[in-house]
Amino acid sequence: MLEAQLDDMTGEGLGYTMERLLSAGALDVFYTPVYMKKNRPGTLVTVLASIESADRCEEILLVETTTLGVRRSHWSRKILERKFVFADTPYGKIKVKQAFMENRMLHQAPEYEDVARAAREHKVPFQEIFQSAMK
Amino acid sequence: MLEAQLDDMTGEGLGYTMERLLSAGALDVFYTPVYMKKNRPGTLVTVLASIESADRCEEILLVETTTLGVRRSHWSRKILERKFVFADTPYGKIKVKQAFMENRMLHQAPEYEDVARAAREHKVPFQEIFQSAMK
Amino acid sequence: MLEAQLDDMTGEGLGYTMERLLSAGALDVFYTPVYMKKNRPGTLVTVLASIESADRCEEILLVETTTLGVRRSHWSRKILERKFVFADTPYGKIKVKQAFMENRMLHQAPEYEDVARAAREHKVPFQEIFQSAMK
Amino acid sequence: MLEAQLDDMTGEGLGYTMERLLSAGALDVFYTPVYMKKNRPGTLVTVLASIESADRCEEILLVETTTLGVRRSHWSRKILERKFVFADTPYGKIKVKQAFMENRMLHQAPEYEDVARAAREHKVPFQEIFQSAMK
Amino acid sequence: MLEAQLDDMTGEGLGYTMERLLSAGALDVFYTPVYMKKNRPGTLVTVLASIESADRCEEILLVETTTLGVRRSHWSRKILERKFVFADTPYGKIKVKQAFMENRMLHQAPEYEDVARAAREHKVPFQEIFQSAMK
Amino acid sequence: MLEAQLDDMTGEGLGYTMERLLSAGALDVFYTPVYMKKNRPGTLVTVLASIESADRCEEILLVETTTLGVRRSHWSRKILERKFVFADTPYGKIKVKQAFMENRMLHQAPEYEDVARAAREHKVPFQEIFQSAMK
Ligand code: NI
Ligand code: NI
Ligand code: NI
Ligand code: NI
Ligand code: NI
Ligand code: NI
Ligand code: NI
Ligand code: NI
Ligand code: NI
Ligand code: NI
Ligand code: NI
Ligand code: NI
């Protein structure tokens, strides 16, 4: 996990940085609003990265943001196995991600991109497609 | 400390999850609003748990939320000793928690449940009972 | 809509205030974290209230919080009609709220209290009961 | 201005809703993290819309989100005049937006899409292109 | 009340703007973190101002920030009467603000600047001085 | 890194605590708004401190806040080298901080205090001075 807090970046610059981190192989990127000294609204940038992509992400943070340093720490991680199935819906086939722990399915959810595309195409609410793929 | 960030849970589901984590022995649970990719408001779930209850809390996160993984890291912790005394107030006895470091009392505060119950019962503002138990 | 921003209340006191506002008939209450002067994390309290309960809510804000004033403004509101049906699930009957605009059902959702109670009773994840009531 | 607060939507659904509101002509859309009853992290949706597009945006909120009602209020608005010029940079021409009040230029900024495209194309940091278009 | 949301300002610039608005006579200024389009963390600026100082504050927003427009709306306001007394404490006299509604004292609190100065001078925790001025 | 989450402190008390931590040698301090149990808006305090000042900062947290414990963890940190130069501007000399990685300058920014002082003195917008020092 990489972290840096910033009080001298714009939202525009941070939007661009997130895009670059995700294309460089970050597992996930998220921004937390924080309160910094001298009445400054700031942003904490958190990057989850595998050991292979951590150096690349660290360099992007140093180059694209105004930070003078990047912190790093190691977290262990318990990951569920995932499987993909396809749901037949009135709006076409929708990919569904299922999460398993030792052969027990814990939860499942339709993939966002499939649901959003079907919603746009069929002019039907997102929730309606999402629900019809859960049945 | 356990962590997972989520972009596909509702507030309702997270309220239920907090309740379950606290009954399973979590020391504390808090939610941080975070900004995730594709314009998604998300939530970072943080659970503080002793070594004994960490596995149980991890399982609740995997079962009750939509996460595909839970991170874990170890933090050392400096804990103050605590003692309880009772304050006599015009609204009855109120339990007060005192925090000590090597016999020096650092701070004290009336217990929330006692103050809230007396406030409801005597139809007096919360702050008034809180203050009268501090004297 | 009533509003007040506060930099000298504790989270405990705000939790109590929300409880009192909801019992006094507020339609909804929510708290927004805001950045105030002199590096102070503060809280903006927003209360949605009908004309009948606005005065009562305003008085609770003045008595229970440390504010010196409460703002008020009027918003017009478009409300959907709602109907309740019951879903038969393997975990018992679950109340479902349906929202209508001119006889067209826009969306529906199982009631939180019913889902939570069945989840606790049957020791089944919240999401599983929620989904089974949507079918 | 339209508003609705939600505790039973996912981040994914809100990301989709923002996209639809912007294509329907909303002037701006933003999400504020709020604290709702029963320990629920929620989201306040705010839509700025002209009188012509307000009804269309209201309908999207009612159809795509789980809200049972949408509030509306009127704000007056002081708008700066804007003019566009082009900056010649080592990375090509970049469009720059200038804001004027009665012929006095108050501020200017390079357009995000132009800066981001040049940054991707020339593999140069976003800030470097931004600065070179400000000179 | 004046409002503007911004995605292209830094925290540093917003800290400076708050300082200028408060010296120009704003009653209060606060910043709310908001989620804007294209994954941008943004900031909603809210300024409470009397009718006399609203134009001056609006101009500061237009000149010091990157906004292209400022919204304005009118809220009615219920204000408590306030009185000041002095508390004798082991750390000297501390000014205490009392809030009244029709001769009923609703709440009171020691003034921040007095408490902070005594805490610095006597090297005693802020809370201890605050409490001793409440007795 | 030191952390503690709080639900029974006021914003005023937290503003004072930040001031004390920074004078005690903390590298940085920031506050994150978090959602805690029983509908309480809370605050996560994060302190970045060198090994030498960590104990002093921990004691300030225990004495000035209401926390019963402080967590600590170790992060490794990649720091850029920094150099200072002076920019000649129509508003006087402004100090500019430059960040280097192995002799490659990654970014630079005028120092806040210099820009703010010149802006106040010359009654010119902050951004204008900031930009003129970047050229
Ligand atoms: Ni800085
Ligand atoms: Ni380790
Ligand atoms: Ni997802
Ligand atoms: Ni009693
Ligand atoms: Ni105050
Ligand atoms: Ni049953
Ligand atoms: Ni609900
Ligand atoms: Ni080019
Ligand atoms: Ni912009
Ligand atoms: Ni003294
Ligand atoms: Ni507590
Ligand atoms: Ni000068």
Helices and strands in order, then pairings?
The structure is a homohexamer of 135-residue chains.
Chain A: E1 2-6, H1 11-23, E2 28-36, E3 40-48, H2 51-64, E4 69-72, E5 76-79, E6 81-89, E7 92-101, E8 104-110, H3 112-122, H4 126-134
Antiparallel strand pairs in A: 1-3, 1-4, 2-3, 6-7, 7-8
Helix pairs in contact in A: 1-2, 3-4
One nickel (II) ion (NI) is lined by residues 7-8 of chain E.
Written overview of the protein:
The structure is a homohexamer of 135-residue chains. The first copy, chain A, has 135 residues and is α+β, with helices and mostly antiparallel strands. Chain A folds into two domains: 2-72, Transcriptional regulatory protein pf0864 domain like (Alpha-Beta Plaits, 2-Layer Sandwich); 81-134, no CATH class. Chain A is 35% helix and 42% strand. Chain A has four helices and eight strands. Chain A has helices spanning 11-23, 51-64, 112-122, 126-134; strands at residues 2-6, 28-36, 40-48, 69-72, 76-79, 81-89, 92-101, 104-110. Chain A has a four-stranded antiparallel beta sheet. In chain A, strands 6-7-8 form a three-stranded antiparallel beta sheet, with helices on both faces. In chain A, a hairpin with a 3-residue loop joins strand 2 (28-36) and strand 3. In chain A, helix 1 runs antiparallel to helix 2 (51-64) and helix 3 (112-122) crosses helix 4. The radius of gyration of chain A is 19 Å and the shape is extended. Residues 91-92, 118, 121-122 of chain B line the site of one nickel (II) ion. The site of one nickel (II) ion has 2 residues of chain A, from loops.
